[in-house]
Amino acid sequence: MDADSVRRQAAEIEAIQAIYAEDGEFELLQEPEEGQATGASFRVCCPPLGSLLINLPAAYPAQGRPAFILERIRGPAAETAQLGLQELADENLGEECIFNVLSRAIEVAESAGLEPSGKEAVPTFLRAFGSLSGYAKQVQAESSPSEAEQASAQCSMNGSRCC
Fold first, then answer.
1. If residue 27 lies in a helix (H) or strand (E), which one and from where to where?
2. Which residues contact 74 (CB under 8 A, 6 or more apart)?
């Protein structure tokens, strides 16, 4: 990891941390460090999405894009949502994009009626997110309420207050 990537990642993480500064909404898992083979890693709580794990490649933002992992949604539904997040990140290749991607995903979730504990809205969110991101693939029964309930229960067991 070069010095410019470290500086840019650290600045973006600092901005995200300031936005999600409330207790339990931001957790830095790995700081960006020069000479490191991988980039930073952190978790952000974004109601109504729940908890997102964000992993940055070493050369981000100059090269590569963040990997977004929605910890609340499991199975094929998670793949659809992650592809949508990645496509949003692709729209900003070469520049910092995490805040823009999170903001857009939250907008879609809210317009789909997804609430922090709203299991029934997960399929609606995924359909809306799929069409927003350009993935025309229909998300039908990919996220059954039982999947959402399991994910919600997992978040509760982990002590996460945002899921």
1. strand 26-30
2. 143, 147, 150, 151
Q: What is the pLDDT of residues 30-86, one digit of tens each?
A: 998 888 888 899 999 887 778 889 999 999 999 999 998 888 777 777 777 778 888
Domain ranges of the chain: 3-157
Mean pLDDT of the chain: 74
Q: Which residues contact 90 (CB under 8 A, 6 or more apart)?
A: 65
The CATH code of domain 3-157 reads: 3.10.110.10
Contact 52, 69 (CB under 8 A): yes
Q: Where are the alpha helices (DSSP H) in 3-121?
A: 3-19, 75-90, 98-111
User: Omega of the bond prior to 47 within 30 degrees of 0, cis?
Assistant: no
In this structure, the strands spanning 67-70 and 26-30 are unpaired
The confidence score (pLDDT) of residue 111 equals: 76
Of the two residues 7 and 113, the one the predictor is more confident about is: 7
